[in-house]
Amino acid sequence: MGAWQPLPDGLPSEVRHFVEQMRQLKDGTGLSLAALGARTAYSKSSWQRYLNGVQPPPRQAVVALCRVAGLAGAEAERHVVRWELAVEAWPRPAPANPAAEYEEDPTLPWWDRLEEAPAPPPAPRPAGRLLLYAVLLLLALLTTAVGGAVAFG
User: Fold this and answer.
1) Which of 22, 120, 149, 152 has its CA 20 to 30 A from that of 114?
2) Structure confidence by residue, pLDDT tens digits, 51-65
3) Which H or E run includes 3?
4) How far is Cα 21 from Cα 24, in angstroms, rounded to an integer?
5) Residue 7: which of 65, 56, 58, 69 has the closest Cα?
6) C-alpha dihedral (14, 108, 61, 2), degrees to nearest 10
7) Are 89 and 14 in contact (CB under 8 A)?
């Protein structure tokens, strides 16, 4: 279809093979990246990252490309197996703060965990403020009780 940019140096052979196979599959559809994005749940810019070896695609993106390309059964499964091998070998970028350890969610791919920095725990409320609210509430209740007793005798 179009000329692809060279894949980044240092990509493992599993990743390089997978991306090349995905490029061939995409080119076989005759679709542009924008048209591919319109027929799948993934944007043009996502497909650019996946097909240029910048970021591994989610498994469902591979399945969607196979579906758009008309592959099913064993043919589609081969691409999913290539994806599994590529994701295991895909180079992981160094963390921005290696000293910051956080619990990994095994249901999220590593590339999604990089985009979501763990939220800092909420700051504890000062006990003094809570005590102030409790005193104000108690005063309001006492005022209501005294006012009710005076009004109703």
Assistant:
1) 22
2) 999 899 999 999 999
3) none
4) 5
5) 56
6) -60
7) yes
